[in-house]
Amino acid sequence: MTSELGTADHPLRVAIIGSGPAGFYTADHLLKQSDIHVQVDMFDRLPTPFGLVRFGVAPDHQKIKNVTRVFDRIAQKETFRFFGDVEVGNDISLTDLSEHFHQICFATGAETDRRMGIPGEDLARSRTATEFVAWFNGHPDYRDYEFDLSAERVAVVGVGNVAVDVARILCRTPDELAETDIADHALDVLSQSKVREVVMLGRRGPLQAAFTNPEVQELGELVGADIHIPPEDMRLDSLSEAELENTDDNTLRKKITILEDFAQRSREGKERLLTLRFLVSPTELIAGGDGGVRAMRIVRNELTSDGGKLRPRATEQTEELPVDLVFRSVGYRGLPMEGLPFNESWGVIPNEIGRVTEPETGQPVR
Asked: Which of 14, 19, 342, 354 has the fewest C-beta atoms lying within 10 Å of its C-beta?
């Protein structure tokens, strides 16, 4: 006679696809249940676990990577198993997994960048932040990528934490990078970098920038790079001033304090310059004689209120910014998996509070 599901003799079997933080924290929660026995099997297409922590966290942020010690403790539990170098949908199908597990949890993350959707985006020397970060972290899929850092001026489109990571690594000195766990091949290339200015571009104002305060504050502590914000980019419009005045969020006030300090700084004559621009959007990448990027056309934005949210709206004011290399960091989207519903417009697995649903009916799968 079959014992009740969730007992020691008949544990709830759960497959977790993906071995990054989301996967491990899910496993930890399941294995801590006191009223049900759970067996967790984790699958990852790479031979090694930890996903974003291993290949997405910047190499000069080693303390963040120490969270893998927690994951190691989870992996040592008797009711946990890890299967690396197994690609679900290729090496094993979802149908096969469904026959052996009571539940399947997808924790594969958003694996690719969103596009800017502008002319010239596919020119040579127009790259994604994701591939650059994976490259300097030694991700096996990106180890053989090549990055031409002979450009003197680089644009980073976006002002989230990943964009900050890209800008910061480009501005680090070789001695600083050598003290991190950056991949050897990346250290060799970055040590020969000719980059002299990095320009970060945010489509909204300084108050709405997505980076966190510790991340942006670190930009002002770079040994080999001055930081600059044009005064006109720090002027808050009336909508932003009202938002700042009415908020109880001290982190927003701290953010503005940090950025105002940057805007008031004088150049110290360091080897590189890091410039932060706000309320600007790229509208076109312009090709040079070699077929690669030579400039970026940008438009000045203004903020409008849309149901309480401040959104950028293009003005008539445009500018041509000379740049030789562009990294885009404007958001991320997932990739479809064979046998699983996928919303192409949003780049996500359709779900209702985490439960995978059929896109046509909204009903749960399985």
From this structure: 354
